[in-house]
Here is the input.
Amino acid sequence: MTIVLKKMTRKVLVIGEKPSQVRTITETLLSQISSEKVNSRLYLKKGYWKNKQFIFLPLVGHITSIDTSDDFGWNKCQPLDIIQNPNALIIKKNALFQRLISQKAKEVDELWLATDPDSEGDNIAYEAFTIAINSNPELISSTLRIWNSSLTRVEIIRSFENPIKWNTSLALAVQGRRIIDAWVGFAGTREITNSARKIIKQRGVVLSVGRVQLPTLKLVVDRDRERNEFVSVEKYNLFADILDNQRKTIIIAIKHDSSPFEELNEVKKIIKKISSETTAIVNDFNTKKVNIPPPKPLNTTDALAILSKNLKLNAERGLQILANLYEEGYLSYPRTDNRQFKAEFPHKEILAKLYSYPDFQPLIKTIKEANQVRTNGRKMGVEDHDPIHPTGVIPKESIKIDLQHLKTWNLISRYYIGMFMPDLIQSRGKVKLNIKEEPFIQDFQQIETIGWTEAIYWKKPIETTYFSFKKGDVVQVGDFRSKKFKTQAPPNWSDGSIIKMLEKLRIGTKSSRPEILLKLIERKYVIRSGTTYQGTNLGHSIISLFENIWPDLVTPHFTRMVETKMDEVATQKASYQNMLEEIKHYYLKLHELLLSQTDGFEELLVDIINQDESFHSSSFETPKNEICPVCRTGHIIQRFNPKTKKIFFGCSRYPECRWTSPAKKNAKGKYLPVSSQSNVLGSCPSCQGSLVLKKVSNYRLIGCTNYPACQVTFFLPKKGRVTITKQECPICSLRLISLYSPRKDNKESPKKVLCAICKK
Here is the structure.
């Protein structure tokens, strides 16, 4: 008798970073998808692929946070204990995801980690991995990593067909940074704040410090000081007009070789000396053709600088748009330090797809060779990522892709195409003339072949009128004149320039730099106007204070050392525990130095506080400990918008959760969020905000809390009462609304229950 054994289907738990990412992956891989509802906003996706049964679980970014244990609360220990005692810091896990991961880990044979493909995504994967193996240790040997460069169909299938071995090195490097930042943030902030609270009799006052925050703030403050101390000086340029042979037309103005002059009298002496001259002799004229190759590929910093310059987008908005375009499959993964494409990269396929876009056809026709970009950069950072590039999929305007997204995609795509195009060719010339022994000089440049600047138009050089001379030529001279100008102070930092400087100084990471700038704004240390930054009085006071008592934290020295050590962990050149202990002992010395410098600390604080009304702002009030209505894990905290000078509320888990709400004073004069659980319908379909019931002028509408960045809007009838029910739409999971239509007798007609999006 023959016994036939039925082959068991292996079950795989796939952990994704966010619902939108998981939705794209499942729609690509699975022909039939079933959903398991967890709550109103979270669904597990299930289906079969390649003879395996998959369960997809989307997270909401980080599912753990670092905090102090109950025994090490604010007034329960000395700040130094937080660093010295190994029990001081604890890892808090999101209860919902801990339960889900633990439960599903017991049901599966394999664990695949499909969070975002970078070190931050690895750290989020590590959080889920730790929970899963605690529940099912057998998964240690069957854990794989999905590493995709984009969310296109081809790339999703490739990454799932070729999962790689899970390695914790990148994740531990990020975890190390988080722990070090907790030491500095908890211990340093408490040390400084406790001193401040002895002077300011307000319980809520907090003077926040941070490893990356302080040196970033110092950059802004130093630029402000440089501008404030700058004294504009009047200087003078001396010009001579060169005429045609008939002495009728000015063909060019040439500048004295010693320009600019400090003194006007010196200019007048030269003019007096040469005023009677009508000719000049050409001493030298040289000309050359210059081939300028295309620029190197884009990393995150380069891309944000382009968006800041061309679209006036601030750093966090630019990064958000790049991330949205990645999630929709139009761009590659936007968080990368790398400026070098791999040798086997499929450039031809991408350019062929981009050719279907009419605006790009004339540009792509000029490309002779597309195997590799004209000027490849070098590999930077520890992650094996290609630079930012279009996937070849042409976007269309939709509820998730607005005009800013389309303009961003266009700029990134044009840059990518430009890297394959011919060189920019310029003719450059320089003429030297003498007018009665006084040297004059002029440079010329003219574009011979526009080359790659036809695509990357914002880098096109300015042309000047070009003339040809020969040595010994005698040319006609007309008037002589001086032109006064004033020297200019260096400009305020812009999003593009400060992000580039932070990268150069190794302050922060590609992901954290925009967030740090936002934190400085929220803490009222800096003000952002458009895309430029300026320190507030409070920000200047903080830096003035710390420069004297804690210079190693204010300068990039300590944070740069941390980044270098953690990169060694990421590349497996050093042990995680050894590096953490080394940095811990180093920071202990820095903290002890801070304590030794505090003899006159309170006196300095008194001077600062008396001069700065920011310390007396109501923004220091302790916010109500209310759960965020969108992510259900963060808390509602009070914030301040320096541009509008208004208080608003947001989620403590920003930027993972971007819920915000305007603030309204109640009868007791306290600020409360307008948008709370009572008027939130659910998650915005376009971004990570939430849809809330609003009234704007005479209109009632349902709109996103991230307005104006997100402009999702659904208008409601002008008349009749509107309420939000506890029922949920079976299609999109938003809470349903009830519409009561008024009748002529001023009584309400029966209510109509429907969904704001689905209209059903």
In short: The first helix runs from residue 19 to 29. The mean pLDDT is 84. The domain at 234-292+427-442+471-486 is CATH 2.70.20.10 (Topoisomerase I; domain 3).
